[in-house]
């Protein structure tokens, strides 16, 4: 027979299960005598039988969930053995579930990561809670804490399991709320019900759904031009509420910027600092507008743009510029004052006072500046010019701005004065005095006259010519004897001069320049002919015949120092060349006669004696003082006769009466004095002229 009992689990030890004796209808004493035994199919002895009472009791704690798990019905099978006679009874004890286990989640905390752009209605399963109880005591429902974004959906399976799901009902926005904290409660159907909770932490994963935002729509900065490289212009600040790469911002210059601007400014892509990397020139641009973009690193990237306006402040870094609008580097020296030489345009690329320019020229030059209007000047002559005084000017035009400190620029204008024929040639000497030895060679240069003309080129090309100016002979034409080289001024003799014919020659030399209207000048040339010893003395008395012998008679009684005769000679030369000396070179008796050195008088030096010869031959030589000296010889024969004195006295009377000897002597003396005086005066004048 089979007996069935039902007991709830978790009964205490000794709890009553059933009465075997009663249920079998057997006397208790009989069961005790029959050696009643209880055998269990399991390893554990959950039950025991009191043989005295026949009551089955719980001997160990019974956990239905441990014994049967999730089976809806749980049984423990016992075998009851009785001896005399041997009988077996099967006892089936149903273990009834009690609500002794609350639902249990696998973890007290659940973490979910949900993309913020997850679509509405998206489901996110949560690991279900486990409740080992069965029937109504097992898990019955879930409850989700109140929130704005999620609802709970419980999915039931055919096996009775319930699985919770979070359903997205409202779009997530990580930038508004990055984390959501929910509580999921699992509740069974026991009475009273038991429950458990798990905390759900939802991390909203960022999506690149926000673009970077600058803290200002535009930036402004002010820099002075020529700021050094690396100067900070501005530091940009852009933020992106996204996170991670989606919020990681990189700065760059927009492609809308010109290549020239990119060479001047650079931006740090990490910090957003814009710095100067090129030359800032106010004169090229006063304002720079830089287009900047900020990009995040999301996929796809999102970007934002802003502009940076950089104003450049001018500094006085540009010197004035001098531009020649019109300029003539050559100027006629006869240009009147006020003649425009150059038109000058000045400019300064700076602004304000730094761009205002003043011009001037040195005050010591014959030029001045006239301001025509703003930024234009005219360079004028201020006085008369003279090329012969200064032929070339370097006019420095100084242009200075009004900056602080001022900058200036100097431009040199080379101005050459063009010559006009305004100067007549000038001889080096007002007159020339020339000493020329007679018998000069044909073509010999007597003198070189030299003139200078301070004009230039054609106006200074000189030509010389000889003009008749008269001389010792008014009818003498100098061009007959002289010629002049037209360019060198060398005066040459066409014929040899003869002092005995011409002692002095005077003429004018005219010089003319090569100007279109030639200018002329003259100088006077004095030519003094210098005597040469080219004439031998000529004996005038006594006149000798062809045999060059003259006879004289004297009385034997002639007493010394009686004058026998006088030799008179004349030399056509002058000066020392005409100074004559008389010498007795040979005589029959050298001691009887003597000849006066200068006068040529022949006298007897002693009384005649009977032993003296009756005829005496005397050789008298007349010599001049030239170099080399020239001479003439005359031979006299003195006859000693008784009638000699009468004849000699008659000769003396004739000579005395005729006055021949005194006249000739006087002529010679006067000529010598005159010639010597003229020579001395000429030499003195020449020496003074040379000094």
Give a verbal description of the structure.
With 691 residues, the protein is mainly β. The chain folds into 6 domains: 3-96, Immunoglobulin-like, CATH 2.60.40; 109-205, Cadherins (Immunoglobulin-like), CATH 2.60.40; 213-313, Cadherins (Immunoglobulin-like, Sandwich); 322-417, Sandwich (Immunoglobulin-like); 426-530, Immunoglobulin-like (Sandwich); 538-640, Cadherins (Immunoglobulin-like). Helix content is 10%, strand content 43%. It contains 7 helices and 49 strands. The protein has a 4-stranded mixed beta sheet, with no helix packed on it. Strands 8-14-13-10 form a 4-stranded mixed beta sheet, with no helix packed on it. The radius of gyration is 81 Å and the shape is rod-shaped.
What keywords describe this structure?
691 residues, mainly beta, Immunoglobulin-like, four-stranded mixed beta sheet, 43% strand, rod-shaped
Give a nutshell description of this structure.
The protein has 691 residues and is mainly beta. It is built from 7 helices and 49 strands.
Number of domains: 6
Strand order of the largest sheet: 1-7-6-3
Sheet having the most strands: 4 strands, mixed
State the secondary-structure class: mainly beta
- Strand % is 35-45%
Radius of gyration, CA atoms, in whole angstroms: 81 Å
* Low-pLDDT segments, ≥5 res: 645-661
- What is the CATH topology of the largest domain? Immunoglobulin-like
The N- to C-terminal Cα distance equals: 187 Å
What portion of residues is helical? 10-25%
CATH superfamily of the largest domain: Cadherins
CATH architecture assignment of the largest domain: Sandwich
